[in-house]
Amino acid sequence: MKNYISQLNGKEQNSVHCIKKLIANQLNALIIYCFGCKTNIKFKRSAFFKNQFKEDRQFNCDLLIITPDSIAVDEEKRAEIQEMIAHFGTVNMVIHPLGFVLRKMNAGNLFFSWVHREGMLLLDHNNSTQLLPAAV
């Protein structure tokens, strides 16, 4: 999945890009990975409606957001960000400081290692991924 944003259709790409920009600006994020993405599309057609075609989209994504160690993200800040990006869909944010992620990866944590290896890299501020150890 790494770096393959082209796997997503145009609307999904736009949503992910806008979500990434908002989160990066709000949290001064160093690295953002998408490790899960789902879009449900429901089409409704009827001869009895003026607009005979209706499309309903539900977009969900899971993001790992790695911030500088100096950034503390409380529940109020999370809620503020969720409110800003809610119109794009459901975004599940896993937010950790870089130091925490480095300790976990060096200890062999599979979640962080697998997201680093297989996740879709959305943001790599100043080549911050070079600070991460090689994935397991």
Protein traits:
alpha+beta, four-stranded mixed sheet, 136 residues, 35% helix
In short:
The chain is 35% helix and 32% strand. With 136 residues, the chain is α+β, with helices and mostly antiparallel strands. The two termini are 16 Å apart.
Structure description:
- This protein has 136 residues and is an alpha+beta fold.
- Helices cover 35% and strands 32% of the residues.
- It is built from four helices and four strands.
- A four-stranded mixed beta sheet has the order 3-2-1-4.
- Helix 2 (75-85) links the parallel strand 2 (53-67) and strand 3.
- The protein is elongated.
- The chain starts with 9 loop residues before the first helix and ends in a 12-residue tail after the last strand.
Outline? elongated
Task: Please provide the ordered H/E string of secondary-structure elements.
Answer: HEEHEHHE
Strand order of the largest sheet: 3-2-1-4
Number of helical segments with 4 or more residues: 4
Largest β sheet strand count, sense and barrel closure: 4 strands, mixed
Mean pLDDT: 87
What fraction, in percent, of the residue positions are helical? 25-40%
Q: Structural class of the helices, strands and pairings?
A: alpha+beta
Count of strand segments: 4
Unreliable parts: none
Q: Radius of gyration from the CA trace? A: 17 Å
Show the helix and strand layout.
Layout: H1 10-27, E1 31-45, E2 53-67, H2 75-85, E3 90-97, H3 98-106, H4 110-118, E4 120-124
Parallel strand pairs: 2-3
Antiparallel strand pairs: 1-2, 1-4
